[in-house]
Amino acid sequence: MFQELIETAAAMPAETCASGDVLFDLGMMFSTGRSGMVDLVAAHKWFNLAALKGRVDALPLRREIAELMSEEQIAMAQREARAWMTMH
After folding, report:
1. pTM of the model
2. Where are the domains positioned within the chain?
């Protein structure tokens, strides 16, 4: 049984120092609804960021997601991706 204390004061969200792999996994999670409802805006954002971090396999998935989205949703996803980049 685990009996150590976990120091949560210094913990950071996974996406703060995320690699392309972590960002890709977030895109998969939101595009499939693996941990709740499908969120196309979030999926597009995470696939976009994963592609910027070198995951070329995120590009076709982002395009596939975009085909299911309205122009407003795509614009929102792009704004969220830019906001994430300025914060990290």
Report:
1. 0.80
2. 18-87
